[in-house]
Design goal:
- This protein is α/β, with parallel strands linked by helices.
- It contains twelve helices and ten strands.
- The strands form two sheets. It has a six-stranded mixed sheet with strand order 1-2-3-5-7-10, with helices on both faces. A four-stranded mixed sheet has the order 4-6-8-9.
């Protein structure tokens, strides 16, 4: 199954040390098909393992939608058993439950940065994907919501665990229980996104942020993200222990010597990630 233009449901482009993933079903509001889920799962795994890639940017094709969640005609019936597998993508989703988890970055530890370029409507599984990212640039036309309860479903790709950790409890429960949409300015006020920009500037701004991160020490960036991920929810002393371990690793690295030296010599640092 491909788009009407014969393109894959996920586009991958390497720009130097940045990987750009584009959800590519604009005619279906970039809904997550079995093919897209499989391709996302594989792309995330490659990104995690490729030391040459330092930052991931994920966005949606077209101007209307970032992602409208799981495809209600293809993916959801397959998951409930209402539709039998029809091709290799369907069979893989049915036979390997970990595919859907990895495609939503659940039970998947990626200690490298992920930036979301929210180019339009971001709902259901699309919002759940966004919640797994680190930095979020949203279009002023973007809208956000978790409407699953309106359809007798629940968000099961991370929102029940992640959303109440990222915004206040009462506000998270309002979004989850009502299923109502919010506009980009409210998402910004809630802290769900980092900035709101004109729709035409979203990807460029996200790539600019990614380039800034990619210039930093890759070992330091990995240890920052790993430590924050593991320390979240722990007692302070446990968090300090993780921080001490990250300090030990980074301070023993060549990068930790190169960075200050480059600063004193007034030149760009040449980091090796070790």
């Amino acid at each position: 199954m491909t788009t009407d233009q014969g393109e894959p449901h996920l586009l991958e482009e390497v720009r130097g040390d940045i990987l750009l993933l584009t959800l590519n079903r604009p005619e279906a509001r970039n809904a997550i098909s079995p093919e897209m889920a499989c391709r996302l799962s594989d792309a995330y795994s490659r990104y995690a393992e490729d030391d040459e890639l330092r930052v991931l940017v994920v966005t949606g094709a077209g101007r209307k939608s970032f992602c409208s969640g799981g495809d209600l005609a293809l993916t959801m019936p397959l998951l409930t058993g209402a539709r039998a597998p029809e091709d290799e993508w369907d069979r893989r989703v049915r036979d390997d439950p970990a595919v859907m988890d990895r495609s939503a970055l659940r039970h998947t530890a990626i200690d490298k940065p992920i930036v979301a370029a929210i180019n339009g409507v971001c709902v259901a599984g699309g919002l759940e994907t966004m919640l797994a990212t680190d930095i979020r640039i949203a279009a002023d036309t973007a809208r956000f919501g978790l409407p699953e309860a309106k359809r007798g479903l629940i968000p099961f790709a991370g929102s029940l665990a992640r959303l109440p950790r990222q915004i206040p409890h009462a506000l998270a429960m309002e979004m989850l229980l009502t299923g109502d949409m919010i506009e980009a300015d409210r998402a910004l006020a809630l802290g769900l996104v980092n900035m709101v920009v004109p729709q035409a500037e979203v990807l460029a701004r996200a790539l600019c942020v990614a380039e800034t991160i990619a210039e930093n020490g890759p070992l330091a960036i990995r240890q920052i993200k790993r430590t924050v991920r593991l320390a979240t929810g722990l007692a302070l002393e446990q968090g300090f222990a993780l921080e001490d371990e990250a300090k030990r690793i980074v301070m023993a690295s060549k990068d930790a010597r190169e960075g200050p030296r480059a600063f004193m010599e007034k030149r760009p640092a040449c980091f090796e990630g070790r």
